Amino acid sequence: EVQLEESGGGRVEAGGSLRLSCVVPESLFSGSCMAWLRRPPGKGRDLIARIGTDGRVGYIDSVKGRFTISKDATTNTLYLQMTGLRPEDTAMYYCATSDCGTEWIGYDHYGQGTQVTVSE
Fold it and tell me: Residue 95's pLDDT is what?
């Protein structure tokens, strides 16, 4: 069973920062498109940032300029640096991987999630 291990969530005040990490199995890291998704309370899980095998990135509008997705091949780790956090960023955050050819369908593997709570 593939396991993605997230860490870095927590509770911060509005305007604060957090960095999420996700350790990806070496067998998947270099050949996969990777992403961060989030599920706000009472809502569905949505893609917020993704990074391709070539390093190209994409974000939803609401996090552009505040969140940065990156990856480190030396440690097989996916990151999400979050700054300027807002209460509406409160959610369970998940990392995910996919074969890039089928990324448009969905992601194949997910982490267990890490909670981010932003207070006023």
Answer: 98
